[in-house]
Amino acid sequence: MTTTEVIDETIAQPASTTVDSVWMTPGSVKPVWLAVSILATLAGLFSFWPLLIAGAVACLLIAWSWLSEARAQTDELPLR
Which tens digits make up the pLDDT trace of 45-64? Predict the structure, then answer.
């Protein structure tokens, strides 16, 4: 195979015209608050029982909110 044959083969291939898009979701602070509430729950386990209850309730509420937000964002994804 000579150099001109290689050049001819690369030029003969059609250029790709498809464009792929990346769906970027907006940032969220809910993972940070979830981590803080888990930490508060663990700290309340050993130090102050009302902190345990408050941390556990906050953990459940934040996790529920984060999951419902993720479901809503999944429904907004383009189908193709």
Answer: 999 999 999 999 999 999 99
